[in-house]
Batch of 3 targets.
Target 1
Amino acid sequence: MKRGIDVSKWQGNIDWQKVKAAGIEFAILRASYGDGTSRFKNNGRDEKFEENYKGAKEAGIPVGAYHYCYARNIEEAKKEAEFFLSVIAGKQFEYPVILDLEDANQKNINKVTLTDMAIAFLDTVEKAGYYAMLYSNKYWLETRLDYDRLKRFDIWLAQWGKEPTWNGNFGIWQYTSDGSVDGIQGKVDMNIAYRDYPAIIKKAGLNGFDREELTSRADPERKVVYTVKKGDTLWEIAKKYNTTVEKLAKDNGIKNPNLIYPGQRLVIK
């Protein structure tokens, strides 16, 4: 088990070195909210996300990221997912990237639609090469969402108290919003992670990490399996691995070198 926090602009300026010294082992950072339009303050980008990401990384604290959802239908959920992906692009996350689904403006949406929205968002994130997770509270998971349809995604459970009583599976438990950590002024959410997410995510080559494998003993040539991220070009990938576009295209059966997509896996010999 790992002890962690989740933070947003509401925690203000954070001294991440003190947070690390206080024994915090991971941090989930709010990256965005809404759909990226001007109807949201700062176009829906958390004002402290870049600063918190940089500070946590420099302190050696593994991080994840979350998006607070205001969507009211499937198309809006997909749009918010694309916006979230644009905010976190180019960064590496040792912990999942997460949909926070709990807003009051969604209270009148029926269970089927609300579950469809969650799946649409999480599928979009997953297909882009990330380890997707759903954050919600016990009440929503039991009454507002169809958990049977969401079981393939990890759950970040919000249930404040001495121990969780929700019967479903969950990988992270947010057990209080009233925590206190050196380096953070005021209260902060506290969490426990039950899975070794950094190992799982790095091994799978997700969240901005490259998956590395070795060929069989009969063929000792080293190869790398690279997961294409949004904005990548074959030329940039070839340059990074000291190879050529032509070789990458040939080794991976790519007919048009200008057409690669996020989530595509490329074998680089």
Note: The two ends are 37 Å apart (CA to CA).
Target 2
Amino acid sequence: MKRLDFIVSSREDLRAFPEEVKDDIGYALFEAQEGRKPAAAKPLKGFGGAGVLEIIEDFSGDTYRAVYTVNFKKVIYVLHCFQKKSKHGIKTPPQHLTLIKRRLKIAEQDYKINYE
């Protein structure tokens, strides 16, 4: 089973979600650690393939997302967790995509330092 690491504030952001959402996302991340693709996960557009995925959970009229990467042999990195605020469409807001790209670079550096 792969290790699960959180980048920057992603752990605290996930902890702020409602309990039911945390349970569902937690189980999906566990599945990813075991090498399976969770049913609730799909590739995040703009990241060139299936290496960066998002888990989408709807709860009580709100949408919650957790973005993680499976690009590394030994670790699943959770890059970003957030509540989608926009009521217009399903597209991930640009500021979140920028943050995810920045955190993916942090994950790459962390992996080189700690796992290679």
Note: Strands lie at 3-6, 41-43, 52-59, 62-69, 75-84.
Target 3
Amino acid sequence: MTVDALTDVAGVRVGHATRTGDGWLTGTTVVLAPEGGAVAAVDVRGGGPGTKETDALDPRNVVQKIEAVVLTGGSAYGLDAASGVMAWLEERGRGVRVGPDPAHVVPVVPAACVFDLGRGGDFRARPDAATGRAAVEAADASAAGARVPEGCVGAGTGAVVGALKGGIGTASTVLESGITVAALVVANAAGSAVDPETGVLYGELFRGRRVAYPERGVHESARRRLAEAAARNAPPPLNTTLAVVATDAGLSRAQAQKLAGTAHDGIARAVRPVHLLNDGDTVFALATGERPLDDGRPLALNDVLAAGADMVTRAIVRAVRAAEPVDGPGGAWPSYGELYG
């Protein structure tokens, strides 16, 4: 049975650590690969990225597999969450072997952050190593194929998309070949997810089915609410949409790099404008290698590439729809569901 989430890729687990109240509105999400690791790659398109260990994923470099990916709030400060994940992995001997003792490992933990500083009211309330450890422990404790909480959790706790509340979303599909492709997204963009003329989510225009347009009165009321909220809030200096696209296909590191790159198309369908100087848009790709690509089809990878972008679009729609409104000392962000139903 599938749950329409990143965890439909066998062996992949997701854990959130969420901090709210007393000035907090942030968190960390960890994607934990199967033991032994997964082939990984990354593609950064935003002009203001905050990342860690992304150079290690370059196919020209030595690291072959990684054990976890960290997505976190807190801007560059929040990248400290990866230290907690590294410590947890080291205790279990999971990482790149660097000595004769099996315990001599260096876990390579790529990480990327979103800007949510001060959105809970306290600029100094941000994830740290303990937050990262809590998230990876939550991932490890989850059952195989478990449902993934969406909305204002983990790295999506303080996320904002334009003037709307953002969050975490996830989606998956199974191709005719039997290969699973899935995505998890932290939607926190400077651009908007909503068509200003109709109120429809951009991402729903690409879902291959008829779109229900909001009534004009509902849309006009929503536009007024959003304008009021935007006027009240301080302009966000930085934003970012983060994604992890995972598959059980057997991909080379170069093929995984291509998957990470084409998955950015999924962001561009759901958010406009995208990849701005004050975005840090970053997509990671993970391949567990359980199902080989069809050697008789030289272009078999195309199916995986197309599905990766599609799942990112769907995940952004789900993130925005699952988000709950926030009205606190750090600002007010209505949710799409609150405005449009």
Note: The CA atoms of residues 181 and 307 lie 6 Å apart.
